[in-house]
Amino acid sequence: MQKALNAIMSSSVPPQVLWAVGAALILELTFYFSMGRRGLWSSGRLLASAFVPFLVYSVPSGVFRLDSLLMLAALSAVICLWLPLTHKWPAADLLYLGFAAAVYIAGLPKQIFRTPIEGLPVETLGQLLWFRLGLTSILLHRAGKSVGFGFVPKPAEWRTGARWYLFCMPLLVILMYALEAAKFRMAPGVWWKAPLTFLGILWVVALAEEVLFRGVMLERLKAAWGTVPALIVSSLLFGSVHFWYDQRFPNWKMVALASVAGMFYGQAYLSARGVRAAMVTHAMVVTTWKSLFAG
C-alpha cells in the first residue's frame, strides 16, 4: 500500500494515467454497488459492462493490448453466460464455482489490467470486476430474494453478526495456537487500517463468499439434506477454497480454520435469515486476523 501511495504521489505518474485509473475505478464501483438492482442487469448488459472499465483505463494510459482484451472477452463470456445457459444443474453450478475460483487464484483478472507504473495498484480493478461479474450473475440466475443481499446490514443483523463473532473468536484463537498457524502480532498502523480493512472485507470478500456459500450453497444443501448436514458440508467446502491461501499449497491449517469459521458464518446466516449478518461475522473475524495476528 505504501508503494502504491508513493507511486500515486510521485511526479513520474502521468496525469492521464491517474485520470484513467480514477475514471475506471469510479465506473467499476458504480457497477459494483448496483449489483442488487435486478431490473438494471441482464446477462448481455453484464457482459458488455465488463469492457467499459478496461477500455476507459487501458486506452488513455497507453497499456491497451489485444491479448488482454481477448482474455477479458473469453473469461467474461463464460462467467456471464454459464448460469443462464445451464439452468439449475448442480454439477454445472459446481463447475462454475470451480472455474471462477481457478481464474481468481491464477491471477488472470490481475493480468488483464496491466500497469504502466510499478506500484500502481490497478490490478485491484481486475479483482473487483471479477467479483462483480460472478456475483451479479449468481444474483440474477441462482440466488432468490431470501438470500437477503445488501451492502448495509440492519441493526439486528449487526447484533447477530457480532454475537456469532464473539462465539467464534475464542475457538479460532485456540485452534490457531494449537495448529501453530499464527501468533499475536499487531499490524503496524492497526488503528487506522482496521476500519478500512473491515469495510473492504465486508463489501467485497465477505459479500461474495457469503452469497456463494451461505446464500446459495447452504440453502440448496439444506433443501436436500436438512440444516445440520448442509451447514457442515457448506463449511467444509468453504474451507477447501483456502487451500491456496497466502500462496501456500496445500495450506491445511487455513483450511481447518476457515472450515470452523464457516460454521459460525453459517449460524449467523441462519439466525438472521440473510447474508448480511454472516458478512458482519466474516468481516470481523478476518479483520481481527489481519490486525492482531499479522505475519
Summed up, what is this model?
The protein has 295 residues and is mostly helical.
Structural summary, described in words:
This protein folds into two domains: 2-142, no CATH class; 147-292, no CATH class. Residues 1-9 have low confidence and may be disordered. The protein contains 13 helices and no strands. The longest helix is centred in the last third of the chain and has 36 residues, at 190-225. Helices cover 74% and strands 0% of the residues. It is an all-alpha fold and 295 residues long. The protein starts with a helix and ends with a helix. Helix 8 (123-141) runs parallel beside helix 10 (190-225).
Q: Hey, roughly how much beta strand do the residues contain?
A: under 5%
- Count of separate DSSP helical elements: 13
Question: Into which percent range does the helicity of residues fall?
Answer: over 70%
- Count of domains: 2
Query: What value does the Rg take, in angstroms?
Result: 19 Å
Question: Secondary-structure element sequence?
Answer: HHHHHHHHHHHHH
Class based on secondary structure composition and strand pairing: mainly alpha
Low-confidence stretches: 1-9
